[in-house]
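User: I'm preparing a small set of examples for a lab meeting where we compare how different chains pack in three dimensions. I only have the primary sequence for this one, and I'd like the structure in token form so I can line it up with the others. Please keep the answer compact; I'll paste it straight into my notes.
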Amino acid sequence: MARNLKEPPTLPPHDLEAEESVLGAMLISPGAVVAVGDRLKRNDFYRESHRLIYDAIVELFSQGEAVDIVTVADHLTLKGKLDAAGGRAYIHTLSSTVPAAANAPHYADIVHENAVLRSLIEVGNKIAEMGYERSGEVRELLNSCEEMVFSISHERTTGQVQPLKDILGEQFDRIEKLHDAGKSVTGVPTGFADLDRITSGLQPSNLIVLAARPSMGKTSLALDIAQNVALKEDVPVLLFSLEMGKEELAQRMMCTQGKVDSQRLKTGMVGPDDWAKLTDACGRLMKAPIFVDESANPNIFEIRAKTRRLASKESLGLVIVDYLQLMMPEDNYSQNREQEIAKISRSLKIMARELKIPVLAISQLSRAPEKRNVARPQLSDLRESGAIEQDADVVLFIFRDKEESGHLSK
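Assistant: Understood. Below is the structure token output for the 410-residue chain.
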């Protein structure tokens, strides 16, 4: 008979002694309450009585009230939860048996780690049940499973409060290093001198939007940047190609590196000189740390999941998404397309911040520029959502007037 996954043969991971010690420390030392405040949540405690005592301590402390065995017991009495918390005698025992209040952060870490293990077991059981039930598409199940596991880490990660003087010190050291290095490009170089001069390179945690009307060269520019970053800087690049297949991408890069006419490559009319150039180009590209995903219409969750997986293995330096409007929302609920794009845009920005890498998202423009006397694009022309310009740290437009020669301009 198959074992019920909801009834494991042993108790879930927990350490009652550590729970008692951290609560005891909080009962006798206000400093301990402060020290563990950002380390624990009520559900980190395995025993329900400990959760109730922790709630009482936090509520009293938040209200500026004294925290000790008397006030906590009285507070629980008013809530009608004293008996459920173990009674006055138990609360007194907690305060009298704590080994050392100064070790409260250490006790809290033990409690926290056991809570993480319990969460992993719970998620593992859910994943197993989903596998047995076989409901929904396998791809959707995989996405859901990965999201559940990642959510454990995401929920447990909290930013640390830092004094301004420490932040200023870090920034001063960074500026000093940049000054000593004598480089004007502080981010990931694109390989285009004028663009790097304007942006100082693609900065970590930034969402960069590259926008233009169709057939203006958005993908070509993005591919050139990817090759420059990977070949010249030896920085890994992840390219999500939602519009173009991997075969065409490879051909484009071969032609760019080999300086071979792409039309001759498409028709097979390749001369001896072209073969030599293509061989050399392939040799260089095979060493380039470029990773390609050509999934059709992926949702933002799939992109974030794949990026996280690769970033855990490679020192990922740049993510390129070609292009934003072809992405799908995380859920299948019908939404206004503008709201969907806004959600996708925000998720890309969150991914950039989470992984501390630049994300270059290609975007279509609306037809508005074609209806104006001066067709130069504006931020309001970003297609399907005004949220894109709000989420983007940098917006790049490709535009060339018929009467102008090509050049970069601010």
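A couple of notes for your slides: Strands lie at 207-212, 237-241, 290-293, 318-322, 359-364, 394-397. Residues 49 and 85 are 4 Å apart (CA to CA).

User: Perfect, thanks.
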